[in-house]
């Protein structure tokens, strides 16, 4: 059964991509704990990160580090959070978002999708793409 992430990757459901390569994609979370909250997801639908092959796991973390650096640059945060939870969607994903304290790691503070400011989401995606050198599809610009 396809997860919602697989449907986003396949273009069946819209997603706001900031990165895409043959191994993984990264797109904005629709219920962000902060604007710029990005999910790094393997293309292969694997439920638990502990079941990923080592090369895919290493690649996801390399991309998460790159996106984390972009998050710090774009949002001026002290750190980029890096969290793996995995209970909400059975498809491995890393959460990266701007963080200035441990209080910022509270998912209870996530913005409900119907309350998200779409203009702030567009600006967040544009800023990340600018720093990452990617287009709206997430692929590197030529």
- List the uncertain runs: none
Shape: globular
CATH architecture: 2-Layer Sandwich
Quaternary status: single chain
By DSSP (H or I, 4+ residues per run), the number of helices equals 3
Motif (Histidine triad motif): 91-95
Organism: Corynebacterium mendelii
Protein name: HIT family protein
Active site: 93
Q: Any key phrases for this structure?
A:
HIT family, subunit A, 3 helices, alpha+beta, globular, five-stranded antiparallel β-sheet, 142 residues
Q: What does this entry look like structurally?
A:
This protein has 142 residues and is of the alpha+beta class. The protein has a single domain (4-124), classed as HIT family, subunit A, CATH 3.30.428.10. Helices cover 30% and strands 18% of the residues. It contains three helices and five strands. The protein has a five-stranded antiparallel β-sheet with strand order 1-2-3-5-4. Helix 2 (54-75) packs across helix 3 (118-132). It starts with a helix and ends in a 10-residue tail after the last helix.
Compact overview of the structure:
This protein is α+β, with helices and mostly antiparallel strands and 142 residues long. Helix content is 30%, strand content 18%.
List the helices and strands and how they pair.
Elements: H1 4-9, E1 17-20, E2 24-28, E3 38-42, H2 54-75, E4 79-83, E5 94-99, H3 118-132
Antiparallel strand pairs: 1-2, 2-3, 3-5, 4-5
Helix pairs in contact: 2-3
Organism: Corynebacterium mendelii
Motif (Histidine triad motif): 91-95
Protein name: HIT family protein
């Amino acid at each position: 059964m396809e997860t919602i992430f697989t449907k986003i990757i396949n273009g069946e459901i819209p997603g706001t991509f900031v990165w895409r390569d043959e191994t993984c994609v990264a797109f904005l979370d629709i219920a962000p704990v902060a604007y710029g909250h990005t999910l790094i997801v393997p293309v292969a639908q694997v439920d638990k990160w502990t079941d990923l092959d080592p090369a895919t796991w290493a690649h996801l973390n390399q991309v998460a580090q790159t996106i984390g650096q972009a998050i710090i640059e774009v949002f001026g945060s002290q750190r980029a959070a890096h969290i793996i939870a995995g209970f909400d969607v059975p498809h491995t994903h890393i959460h990266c978002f701007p963080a200035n304290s441990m209080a910022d790691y509270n998912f209870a503070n996530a913005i409900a999708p119907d309350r998200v400011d779409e203009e702030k989401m567009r600006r967040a995606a544009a800023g990340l793409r600018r720093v990452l050198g990617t287009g709206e599809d997430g692929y590197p610009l030529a």
